[in-house]
Amino acid sequence: MERQPPSHDETQGGHGHIVSPMLYLTILVALLILTATTVGVSYIDMGIFNPVAALAIACIKMMLVVLFFMHVKYSTKLTKLTVISGVFIFLGLISMTLADYISRAWGRW
Fold this sequence. Notes:
This protein is mostly helical. It has helices spanning 8-11, 21-42, 50-69, 77-102.
């Protein structure tokens, strides 16, 4: 009897996770609510905290997309480490950009 070639699950460690459509629908509704929240926050005058609030909501939406739609929540530890290192590099770049922005035009903001 001839041996069959290994399936995708066998070659990838056998961790084929099936996500229910209800979870995808829940994440979709959460993303739509957060988008509406972003629009609502843009109409509220919070001074210099408007971009902070918008970026905070955007980060929450980004985490939902990465964890569930990109299946990082169910991935291997190496994939999670790669994503986390990318987030830290992004935070470093943002902090350097903000440090440059804050160091300019003293007293005018």
